[in-house]
Amino acid sequence: MAFEGLSEKLQNVFAGLKGKGSLTEADIDTAMREVKLALLEADVNFKVVKEFVASVKEKAMGAEVMSSLTPSQQVIKIVNSELTELMGGVNSKLTYSPSGFTVLMMVGLQGTGKTTTSGKLAAWLKQNGKKPMLCACDIYRPAAIDQLEVVGQSVNTPVFTMRDCKDPVKIAKAARKEAEIKGYDVLIVDTAGRLQIDEELMDELADIKKEIKPHEILLVVDALTGQDAVNAAVGFNEKLGIDGIIMTKMDGDSRGGAALSAKKVTGKPVKFIGMGEKMDALEPFHPERMASRILGMGDILSLIETAEAAYDEEQAKKLEKKLKKNQFTLEDFLEQMGQIKKMGGLGKLMGMMPGMGNAGIKDEDIEKGEKEFRQMEAIICSMTKEERNDPKILNASRRKRIAAGSGQPVSKINNLVKRYEEARKMMKQFSKPGAKLPRMFRGM
Ligand code: GDP
Question: Is the pLDDT of residue 66 over 60?
Fold first, then answer.
């Protein structure tokens, strides 16, 4: 997961400050030296690190003593806001054309994930009420056109192609016309990539830009390439002018240096991050949430958004009624497990919880959790409907049968029933008159 190492190291620095009644300049110096090392190890650009540390130190020294915060909390607060600022401050949204028809031009080097991201972006736009069309402008690799068609199909989005045409400018122009005529409101133009920035590529992209006048040029870079990604961004921005960056493969990059340096070095914001190969693994980039995540403060906002995206109003109402009447059964439990899966699984959710940030949670914990999850699912699936709705009838022979059916020892079945009873007891408080479930939990 992104920022794993950095997160762990920064949290160690702050743990070292904890319990101190006041911080001397020497304390802050020591802490800042460690912060500097942590950032450098995360592959953050050297100049960016220097400025960052100097700014945090200055603010920490000058910070007014707030009675509500301990000195270490104050330093965390400063680092949090500086990290947020470093990554661009606010979430930089896509700009849509006021005319109602928006053209997005995707550019980037080969292999960074441009084609995959074009598809992901189409899926994301659809989820946000848009009607996108894709356009394949890579005339050099026929396989690139095939790939975009496959991607387009998987996200149910039409792909405009002109296989016999060797002029990307013509293709883009025709796509634009077709998209407008057919009533699409966003055209995503996937352009050709190269292994390196070269004049020919830049000229071609500049020609496409001139012809189709994109509302946004989005540069796709690969987080795994670290500072090379940042250098590519500088190159593309100088030669072509870009409006935003999409940083892919953040799921595989444990350092995160590129995401931390890109805005500061290029002046252009990271707008989205790619978190996996699947078509739904694209997230808008929120600097403030990412900073909190790095500092182990959790990412409650993303968690709520994820919950709300999977939120099924009807089902939630039904569940709330049941909770209030204290009629929550194992059948409902099974349904809720399905919800969690829909939200990306335990791992994704746990990473967003406060205190369980990247540093606090290990891959093996997630695996263990997901394994237990699957076991519970197998156990409940091995029960009859009657048993799921009324676990009280689960006598010894029924438990033995379920154990055999699910391939689990009887102790696991006992444990599950016990946990269910405990959860029911806890939920009883919501059945009191007037008790209201927080919205998020209603969805879960
Ligand atoms: P292009 O040459 O820039 O069009 O790159 P592709 O779209 O073909 O992607 C190259 C490889 O990167 C493919 O195997 C993708 O599945 C993979 N990829 C793209 N985005 C991500 C991401 O966010 N995470 C991971 N893990 N893989 C990605």
Answer: no
